[in-house]
Write a structure and sequence with these properties.
This protein is an alpha+beta fold. The protein contains five helices and seven strands. It has a three-stranded antiparallel beta sheet with strand order 3-7-6. The protein has a two-stranded antiparallel sheet with strand order 1-2. The protein has a two-stranded antiparallel sheet with strand order 4-5. Strand 6 and strand 7 form a beta hairpin. The longest helix has 19 residues. Bound molecules: coenzyme A.
Length: 158
């Protein structure tokens, strides 16, 4: 998904993610998100991004970084050889989480990628994203990847 062109970010795409459990199987009924899309543990989100696109957007708009990323995310990336690679993966993670949760609008800083033991990425939610996860009764796991040219992330509700 392309980097955001303006304030407030891009709305997540609807209709991606897991299959809701079949009715009558005893599970918790899936909660309806934006547009009636259902979400429940097992729902997923996926996003891919060309790293150079984000790097160009960040160069053109110096204040974009602080709208998209938390201080910790920026510090993590700044300590690496090619910050844009890690920022692009984190951008994808935010979009992937927004898809998995079927968020109504996306405040990128409400979805923070944190590094846990061994470099395993985790997610810290605040604001509307945290409220949505609480409504669904889920937490969110992510996995990130990047090559020289592309970054991607997948998010899983559990
Ligand atoms: C850790 C490892 C899986 C990363 O894979 P890679 O192909 O080198 O790199 P990718 O671009 O696909 O993934 C990089 C991302 O993986 C994530 N990552 C790092 N260590 C991780 C781990 N132990 N488990 C899960 N994710 C990890 C990070 O988010 C990283 O991105 P970031 O630096 O921007 O945060 C790789 O170094 C590896 O295979 N190590 C040896 C085996 C190993 O230790 N596996 C860990 C599972 S126990």
């Amino acid at each position: 998904m392309p980097p955001p062109a303006g304030e407030g970010g891009t709305p997540p795409a609807a209709g991606e993610g897991g299959t809701p459990p079949a009715a009558g199987e005893g599970g918790t009924p899936p909660a309806a998100g934006q547009g009636g899309v259902t979400r429940s543990p097992g729902s997923v989100g996926l996003d891919l991004l060309e790293i150079a696109r984000l790097e160009r957007a960040l160069e053109r708009r110096p204040r974009l970084a602080e709208r998209l990323f938390t201080e910790r995310e920026l510090a993590y990336a700044a300590g690496r050889a090619r910050p844009g690679q890690h920022l692009a993966a984190r951008f994808c993670a935010k979009e992937a989480v927004a898809k998995a949760l079927s968020l109504d609008g996306l405040n990128f800083r409400e979805i923070e990628v944190v590094s846990m033991a061994g470099g395993v990425p985790g997610v810290r939610l605040t604001g509307a994203a945290a409220a949505r996860a609480a409504q669904l009764g889920v937490d969110v796991a992510v996995s990130l990847s990047h090559t020289d040219t592309s970054a991607g992330a997948v998010a899983l509700l559990r």
